[in-house]
Amino acid sequence: MAVNTYKQDENVSNVSNGKTLLRTISYLKDYKLQTALAILMILAETLIVALLPRLSERAVDVDIANKDAHGLLLTMGIATGLALAIWLLTMGFKKILADVTNKIIYDIRKDAFDHLQTLSLYYFDSRPTGKILSRLINDISSLKEMFTRLISTLIPNLTLIIAVVVIMVSASPVLSLSAFVVVPLLVLSIYVVTIKGFKNWMDFRQKNSNMNAYTHESYAGIKVIQAFNAEKETITEGDKIMKDVEKAWVKAVRRADLLNIVIIWSQGIGYFVLYLFAVKWLKLGQTSVGQLIAFATYIALFWQPIRSLAATFNQFTNQVTSAQRVFELLDTESILQEVPNATELKVTEGRVDFKDITFAYPDEPDVEILHNLSFSVNPGDMIALVGPTGAGKTTIVNLLARFYDPVAGSVLIDGQDIANVTLASLRAGVGVMTQDSFLFSGTIRENLVYGKPDATDEEIRNACHQLGLDDFIMSQEHGFESKISQDALSQGQKQLIALARTLIADPKILLLDEATSAIDTRTEELVQKGMAVLMKNRTSFVVAHRLSTIVKATKILVIQNKGIAEAGTHQELLKANGIYAGLYKAQFEELDKE
Which pLDDT belongs to residue 397? Predict the structure, then answer.
């Protein structure tokens, strides 16, 4: 199976920015009333801002020119009232937008988190955890600012530009040209920055995702790093990845800043043209000092939202790349799909049949792990799977739990094809215990009842007693309510708790993948006794590294060369003196040497 690493950029589907933006905006539909109210408040605030320069014109050309102190005070009072209205409207729509934006981000993050729970193991096996977290946390957080800018920046600035243009043209079409003469240059600049800028920001997001993946991997493997004295190499590699992020960021920002330079030059040209026209118009008496002041203010008002939009536009380019990465996650379909009208699995006896199973990973269809594998397991049998690493032992377990689907063939439980039953009923009937016994942060009780939240105290205590966990639990300060974490217990203790968790869930079929590989001899004896009780009247599949744990298996399957190389009981296979006998002898020779 090919795995994406922190050294590789992820492949992100190429979706148009327009479609991505429309899809992002669609999240506002659940908050129409609040959004509409915020937009109305923004429009009112923007129109008031656009009218203020007219008051300045009146103050100069009418009140001051006529030495009308009362009129000037009235004009100033109106301006003060409008300024207060602007402040109240701004505070109002910002509060509404903050509430709406937070709710939308919650909706998107919940959708993404919920969707991740539906994806198959292949999605998680084929990429670093850090890259998944990068989309779930960083990219979604980036959308928060996008929504805020979308309403609180885009709408008022566009409205202000339109209002200013209408007022300027109605007041003096000739002087208005001073603001519009450089617009074609601006449009061309925006077009160029858009094409190149999107690629730059996407590259930055990819590099940032790589850094998150490496950081997560480094923290997860810190014990190995320190054990092998590899801190310097880790720091060096981390520095290289961080520099890649920095370079990508600087490249994106530099290109984005080109637009600001064009806007500053355009605004300067606008003022030059205005004053050039104004000199002639003042001489001809076709304009006034107040109108000139108003127009200078309007030019500032015209370019201020454009500069704000340019900054917003640059951020939009960055945030649209985040949105694309989030939506690609939401659009990712699990390679495991329930058929329409899937039935509930009913495990009555526990018979298992593998029929002509061929398996290869989705990204490497030509590399078969298993080929035309067939075997049957009677109810209550204990089947041991042995063989060299990579032969396909764990794959058989994964296929039975339907973590993966075969390329061809079918897996049957009591005659029911597991591809046609609901995943929930399958996972309820098939218990899985792996060598990596993961425990969640919480209490011992919470971990024990993870597969059966309604388990009674009697069921919990009985399971722990059968596995010899009594002494360990009672030695904890708060017994079953003692808090534990993944790193707080020994591997043996974690596996014992995981076994008890499986026992409490009471599945009809057990899948034990190297469940005792990291347990010491004394603990193994306790586990073996508990497992004997656990497996009683249950069909069990055991992937074992310690062959001593499977000598009592009903049948041992030696997996090699994409299929079953040998099959039989422990004694039968020893007498055959084949692959299994060689593995068994070699293992005990190693023990003798020790």
Answer: 92
